[in-house]
Amino acid sequence: MDASNPKRDSCLLRPSFGAPAVARDYVAAKLRTWGIGDAYPDVELLTSELVTNAIRHSEGSVELSIEHPSADCVRIEVRDLSERLPVMRPLESAREGGWGLHIVGHIATRWGLEQRTGEKTIWCEVAPAGYDARGSSAQTVLPSTSSSEPQARDSAATSRTPRPPATE
Amino acid sequence: MDGRLECEIGEVDRDLPRTVQIRGEIDLATAPDLESTIRTVLDDAPRGVDLDLQNLTFIDSSGLRSLVAISKDASARGLPLALRNVPRHAQRVLELTGLDAWFDVKAES
Prior knowledge:
Radius of gyration of chain A: 15 Å
Helix content of chain A: 25-40%
Low-confidence stretches of chain B: none
Mean pLDDT of chain A: 80
Number of strands of chain B: 5
Radius of gyration of chain B: 13 Å
Number of helices of chain B: 3
Number of helices of chain A: 4
Largest sheet of chain B: 5 strands, mixed
Strand order of the largest sheet of chain A: 1-2-3-5-4-6
Distance between the termini of chain A: 41 Å
Structural class of chain B: alpha/beta
Order of helices and strands of chain B: EEHEHEHE
Shape of chain B: globular
Order of helices and strands of chain A: EHHEEHEEEH
Strand content of chain B: 25-35%
Distance between the termini of chain B: 28 Å
Oligomer: heterodimer
Strand order of the largest sheet of chain B: 1-2-3-4-5
Low-confidence stretches of chain A: 143-168
Helix content of chain B: 25-40%
Structural class of chain A: alpha+beta
Number of strands of chain A: 6
Mean pLDDT of chain B: 94
Strand content of chain A: 15-25%
């Protein structure tokens, strides 16, 4: 698949506290290679949040993929070997952490989660800097509570609207 | 300390907060080092601590988490802790998480 699409690449990250930094370096290098190094300043932050989440809540290696599917989009996917879905706590009660997914939810244009037997993938898509896709919060396809039952999911079936659109 | 984070620790002053200049990145790898460094600084900081973030190049939710832990520790000791010279990228994640209102953020000096 990667060979047929030159704007998609992936790597395997060892489970360590250093993985988020390695992941940031990796995506920054990919964006430079693709000639869009300055256009997507949020990709490193988003990648760091998704990889941190995977490292903290699963065991084993983490697969990071980055894709530039169209002129105004970069997609990041992080796959880990845990079926457990992240819990998105309300901001008011998140005084000890749990901010990562809120940051992703605010910055990404879309994000979501796919759960399969023995693994899950969290993905997000981001627009170039200055691209006016905001004004409304990201479209989210993540369940807002965790589920212990692995289910086959597709985006449409899990679509929810966890927060009202921002008004500016 | 991880090579991606450096802390330059200022002298103890009886009348002013002790300044710690933070250079580099605060993430999952460097946050524990930052916390232990600042805890040690708080041991000898009669007027509290100013964290100077001017040279902070990256911070994510792990970094926010450690700043909150440090701030709570200072507060438990009755010492003020402020963030100074907060760069735009850090201000943004503070605002996105609502933590900007929670921290004592001093304007760029």
